[in-house]
Predict the 3D structure of the following.
Amino acid sequence: METDRRSFVKATGLAAVLGTTGLAGCSGLLGGGGDASGWLYDPSVVAEVPNVAFGSMDYGTFYDNRDQLPASMQEGFTTDPDSPIQPGDIETLAGVGGGDVTADMQSASAFGTVVVTGSFPTSEIESEIEAESEVQPAGSYQDYSLYSVSDLGDGVTGVPASERFQGSGAVAVGEGAMLIGLSAGQGTASPATGTATVETMIDASAGNARRLGDRDGPVTEVQSEVGESMVSVGAEVDPELVTLAQRTSGMGGMQGQLVAGIRGGGFGMDIDGSTTTGTVVAVYDSSQSATDAGLADLVSGMSARFEEEPGITTVSAEQNGAVVVVTVEGDTDTLLEQGAGSGTTFHVEPTGTAL
């Protein structure tokens, strides 16, 4: 099946929700800083999966620092006067989910939830959502109004039913928070429902469901290193998927050495005016694997060369058991422009524009 983010999100029936609430440009962003980690549940509460990912953003601080960002990124903070949510209304963004891919790549499944917190008009958002025909009222949960999209595959045209994503989506709106949950499978049944993912995140926020930080595994190591950053993303990866990627991509030499034994990784970023600090984390299956990979030694050995680059202040690396942490500090404009140029996406566009 050939698809992309635009067609998949459109197929879920939630594209309209994102657009009418002013969050279309944020739909590709999981990425917290602040109290965002309290929303991140352990995905195994919903379903056992070998791949886990999280992301969060202290959006309010990011927005306050917008004048320090490269001009190309500042363009993303334009305002849509018709949107019930304005950039200055958002405090945090956070998301968590899990998934599985079979070794033969014939089937895949995933689920996840994104939450937006801030000060915005709840009733106006509910009215916008209820005006969309794909989204149906589904009662309430705790103090949240629930809405559902029963079949994600209905919006896909020109694709045989057996090859479509099958699953469900849900939206929850409460005082100061809006959640969007998805669960889908291709070639296999969905591991959960969108409603289950939303309700689990609501429970986690109230301390009634196990949180990601209580999980025992590589993703917890990643979160402990970057989870309090202004922007953070991280993942725990199925060892079989790493082996498959090595085999199919023909990784060898230094690249293969760095990847061997890796079980998780992530990235954190903090902006303090004109200075930005980036943190990259790699978690291996053992201390010996981390040593054999040689990432810490490689970065340390080349730090002087890196620091000669314009806008780079310091580059360092440290290994602590199976965990390697690389830290880069430098000029905000320089680092973010280089990140965008290398394919790292920091772009934020909460304006209700097209997906």
Summary: The radius of gyration is 20 Å. The chain has twelve helices and twelve strands. Residues 1-34, 340-355 have pLDDT under 50 and may be disordered.
